[in-house]
Design goal:
Layout: H1 5-8, H2 13-28, H3 37-46, H4 50-74, H5 83-95, H6 102-109, H7 112-120, H8 122-139
Length: 146
């Protein structure tokens, strides 16, 4: 089990660093529009079930970045075909209402009726983004033995 690529990226310093940085960035960036880390963590604590899904999406985004860096720097012979798919999954999950801080940002840019619909469908968008990220990790051989 430990010789799968999603576990192998943690054995190299540069891939582990990029994975942790991506996880931290995706998880903590909503603190900017919410006005601070304390507000974000308090909001995150009370915002269920999206809080579990959003934490899982941030972990998947970090794994995706770690696998990409591993395939690019450590094992350059591996294919990296689904880069656009993984980026699309991350953007879908983060910007379309998956993170609670995106709803106020979208409300600033979109009409109120669209913002309300997006906020009601945020769990659906989040599940779709998680499935896209899992598919992208699968396409980048993240679940295969090395």
């Amino acid at each position: 089990m430990n010789n799968r690529l999603i576990f192998k990226i943690w054995q190299h310093k540069i891939t582990a660093l990029w994975a942790i940085l991506a996880m931290a960035f995706v998880f903590l960036w909503p603190s900017i529009p919410l006005g601070g880390l304390a507000n974000w963590l308090q909001f995150f604590y009370f915002y269920t079930p999206q809080n579990y899904f959003y934490a899982f999406l941030s972990i998947l985004s970090g794994l995706y970045v770690g696998i990409y860096v591993y395939n690019k720097k450590v094992a350059a012979c591996c294919s990296i075909d689904s880069v656009k798919t993984g980026v699309a999954g991350s953007i879908t999950g983060i910007l379309l209402g998956a993170c609670p801080a995106c709803i106020p940002v979208l409300a600033f840019l979109l009409p109120l009726s669209i913002t309300i619909v997006l906020s009601r469908l945020s769990v659906t968008f989040l599940v779709i983004a998680i499935l896209i990220m899992l598919f992208s990790i699968y396409r980048m051989n993240g679940f295969k033995k090395i």
